[in-house]
Structure formats: C-alpha cells, structure tokens
Design a protein that fits this description.
With 245 residues, the protein is α/β, with parallel strands linked by helices. The chain is built from six helices and seven strands.
Length: 245
C-alpha cells in the first residue's frame, strides 16, 4: 500500500515520543500514514518483547494508524551497513512514502543517531535503479525516493528547522505515549520494578514541557520540532501560523 507518510523509529515508542502529534494531525486530514519500527526494543530494562508488541499495537490504535511493521533488527547492535540498508530500502519501496519521519541524526542515545543516518542513507539509495530488491513474493521492486526526510527531535539540545502545531491533538498524543506502560510511568503501573531515566513521572512532565516550549516559539499551545537537511517550501502564505509580534 502506498503511503503519504512513513514514520520510522528505531525502538517501539520513538515515533510516539517524537512525532505522534504530527501523525495524528495528518491522519485527521485524510493522509495515509504508517509506522515502521526497526527493532523490537529488546534491550529495554523494563518489559519484554511481547509487552512491547502489545503496547505498540495499542499506541497505533490510539493514533489511528492501521499499518505498523517491525523489521526486527538487533536492538543496540544494528549497523548502518549494506545488509541493514537493503532491508530498509525494501520497506521504503514497499510503502513508497512521499515523506519520511525519522530518528534524529545525533542524540544521547547512540541507537537514535545511528538509526537516523541509516534511514537517511536508505532513503537516498532507495532511489537508485541499480540497487535491486524484491517484495515478499520475490517480485522486483521499483526504485523510490521520498521527497522529504524530517528528523523528529528526541532531546532538548536540538534547534528545530520546522515546528508543527499539535495543540488540538496533544492529549491524544500523550495517551499514545502512555500506552507504553512498561516503559513510562502510569498510575496503573506505578513505580514498580527497576526505575530508569524514562520510567519516572518526571520524564512525562518533561515531554509535556518540551512540547509546550516548542509551541510557545510559534504562538501555539503545543508543537513538535523537526530537523531537515533539505529546505522546506510552501505554496502560499495560508500555510503560515500567523501570530502577533
């Protein structure tokens, strides 16, 4: 199925934390959006592979996403090499997205930056006709290169090139994040088990605070930030968010 947007995250929950508001916005506009997880998140301190699949399915349902696939690369040990690039190229050609939402290129978590570069390289290579891949039925795939790659911000120190208003869908976004109850704090799970950087109430508070601060910069309540190596163009000024200065 051809998609308008393919959101790619190295771990189940990366997409929810980084760009789920944008995904929900686009789905409400009638866009076809899918999610691709590169790994099963098996190195996460809390939870299991099975719980991560269940949580990812629940989060997809909350967002309204009907297509979610996992490439089962090795969490922590995947590489930006030919083997992994070809696997991702096949998925990109399968869904033929116009826009890819991807992990950021540099981050405190080494998987995030490595995945960001893997995704960027695979998106370019996917447009080369002499790179041959096949689908599930072993039929040759057509070359495909997404028009834009937007890298969603995953930590505080990045300066966004693009900010998207997610105010109307923010609470739905937070419900999608909270679907990962083994990873993040929830009233149901409480503080049971080994505590990590992301499992305390303070982490979800910081997620809200970041969206609020990004929103403030463009005069809206909540926003998500993206970095792009390609300049973004608009067709008319109606796409601008007009705020008082």
């Amino acid at each position: 199925m051809k998609l308008d947007i393919l959101a790619i995250g190295v771990h189940p929950d990366d997409v929810e934390l980084g760009c789920s508001g944008t995904i929900i916005n686009e789905l409400k506009l009638g866009k076809r959006v899918g999610v691709l997880d590169l790994t099963q998140g098996e190195l996460g301190t809390r939870g299991t592979i099975e719980t991560r699949y269940a949580e990812a399915a629940s989060a997809a349902k909350i967002m309204g996403v009907g297509i979610r696939e996992n490439l089962k690369m090795r969490d922590g040990f995947f590489r930006n090499d030919e083997e992994h690039q070809l696997k991702l190229i096949s998925a990109i050609r399968k869904y033929q997205p116009e826009v890819v939402l991807a992990n950021v290129l540099h981050d405190r978590h080494p998987d995030h930056g490595r995945a960001g570069h893997l995704i960027a390289d695979a998106c370019f290579l996917s447009g080369l006709a002499k790179i041959v891949t096949t689908d599930e039925k072993k039929n040759p795939q057509e070359r495909w290169r997404p028009k834009y790659i937007l890298h969603y911000i995953q930590d505080w120190y990045h300066e966004p090139d693009l900010l998207i208003d997610i105010s109307d869908v923010f609470e739905q976004r937070m419900k999608a994040i909270e679907a990962y109850s083994t990873q993040f704090y929830s009233s149901a799970a409480g503080e049971e088990g080994v505590q990590t950087y992301i499992s305390t109430p303070d982490f979800l508070d910081s997620v809200r605070a970041r969206a609020r601060m990004l929103g403030k910069r463009i005069g809206v309540k909540f926003a998500e930030g993206f970095i792009t190596e390609k300049k973004i163009g608009i067709r008319n000024v109606d796409s601008l968010i007009l705020v008082e200065t």
